[in-house]
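Weekly puzzle thread! Below is a chain. First person to post its structure in token form gets bragging rights.
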Amino acid sequence: MSEPRLEGCPVALVTGSTRGIGWACARRFAEAGYAVIINGVSDEAAMTARAAELGEEFGVPTLAIRADAGDEAQVAACYQAIFKKLRRLDVLVNNAGVLADGKIGMVPGHLLQRALAVNAAGSFYHLQSAARLMGRHGGGAIVNLTSIMGVRGAPGASAYAASKAAIVGLTLSAAKELGPQNIRVNAVAPGMIETDMLSGLKPAVIEERRRLIPLGRLGTADEVARTVLFLAEAPYITGQVLGVDGGMGG
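Winning reply:
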């Protein structure tokens, strides 16, 4: 934890937050005055450095906890550490994810299983543990990161789309179940966003998909992060899946 004190500071956990959309979300929450927990599968030193960077720039408490979203035991240990050190959690941003592109007949089983483990099961594990902790303190907000692929589908993205579609169902069901505990659950469905996750796609594929975007460009990680922060703080919005896709999903 960085030097500033926690009193009066809401706490946000952002999974997969050392880079890309997760890092942009961590920055937005820190700027808004949240204590931010950096989380991912990077080595401890790298995550601690990221957390320190946030603390120094925004003057908020920070913490780094390493945990693989696809490992149920590691996720459970993450929340034990949060409870032990902070005693509370106000916001979960379920961002950790892996890409799994390939034609249906060419996707190996291990790639499919990893996508389902991290994207679908991992989101469930985090939501499950976060809800327990939020329930102790009168509620909270959960924002899940799905994808336009999980809502609309796309050729060559069936494995990834299936794992992200599961997050849509999780969001809609959890919002109804957790609403009475004052825990709001929403999802953001990004379209084509400029992050290093796109490095696994061929330039021709990226250009082909760009041409389908009415706004004519790829989005930025910060544009997604702004939407995530909005949903985390919108007191009467729950059970929604909001596209951040430049009109691609319309």
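Puzzle host: Confirmed. Bonus trivia for everyone else. The two ends are 43 Å apart (CA to CA).
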